[in-house]
Fold diguanylate cyclase.
Amino acid sequence: MEDSFSTAPSRRSLLLAGLIATAMTAAVLMILPDIDVPTTLGGNLRPVQITALTVTNSIIAYLVLLQFYADHKLSNGLLSVAFSYSALMSGYMLINLPRVFSTSGGFPPGSHMATWLWLARLGGTAFLILLAMLVLQRQQDRPLSKRVRFQALSLCVVAPLGLAWFAIAVLSRLVPDLNSLVKDNGDYSALTHSGIGAFLLASWFVALLSVLLVTRLRSAFHCWLALSGYSYLLYLIMACSSSIRYTVGWHASRFFELAAAGIMLGALLFEVLKLQTRLQHSYRQAYEASIHDSLTGLHSRRHFDAMLEMALQQQARHPAPLTLLMADIDFFKQYNDHFGHVEGDLCIQRIAACMAEQLRGGDTVARYGGEEFVAILQYCDQVQARQAAERFRAAVESLALPTPPGSLRPVVTVSVGLYCHPAGSPATAGWLVEQADRSLYAAKHAGRNRIGPPETSPTAA
């Protein structure tokens, strides 16, 4: 069965993704004329936005890492690193926001570290997505060999920590001072005109283009990854088009950033739900196949053994008669040799259907093996069992299935053995089958096409 990341997107999914992309584009076009209009929200929502971004990207990274653990495809491992890195960078920004976790210190808006964390998070995430697509293009998503799987999984867990540390502790000291790019009044036009905005736009454009060209949206996961990348691109367009913090454009751009993460998380959870549904369906199919005989549709021998044990346990708790019927097609070998295996299978199928029709709906009817059938009749005494067995024998005879020339009878018949186990008498499943088989042997020895004498041994051997 295909994994949830390789399933081709349905037309409905493609249509939904297209509608979302169209709606987001329309929203951007509507907001652009009023992009620098100030709002009264200020920065009060910033901690909530960063928290949501951190939590969402962390869950995405975890789900993608689980997929990498399952399919051992390096491109998925790199995508997990990308989202983990983004979550770590935004989480580090969250704990250093002024007046959030401490009353003093932190990174004020527009400071060198606040600007660098924003730049490093977006640029680094885009680079890692591009790297994942290059690996996918080169390796065609072939699974890693068993020898390097554990090392690769460990690296995918440790790499985001190392990259985040390198960006925060090392690169932040190497880049030029970014304090002058954002003024105290919230004007960050110098930041967008410095080339940083253009660099980030180009990074996410290339990342989005790589997803489209390499994957060609052949899987549902990559379809939603492309839409998430497009949402990030719109976020940067909005952020770079505005020049002052806490305006309509600034707050709207943060919505698109959250939408990018929300789209990926929603898509992944939906794919997990679909995978769970397919697994449940496959389990039901496998279970039904295990308890039913493929030729006749009756229960299998294994299921019969389990049901007989359960019937004995139920009889011990609620004393009542328990009857076992065992039937065999008379002279079936001659029939099969003369008419061939195809007609032999059809004969078995018709007699199996006849047995199921003549017995009660709650009785367990199974193919015991070859041309033998067996049935468990609970709460059925000896008189009722013989009546049911006779109905079945007569119904098979009335099918009028012709026998080979020179046969003892002109139509196919069955012999039936039965054993009625009285309530309150201990017995094992094997012993019950042996008693019914003795009755069947007696019916065959007496001339076939009849019901065998009831075996009434009082105790189990």
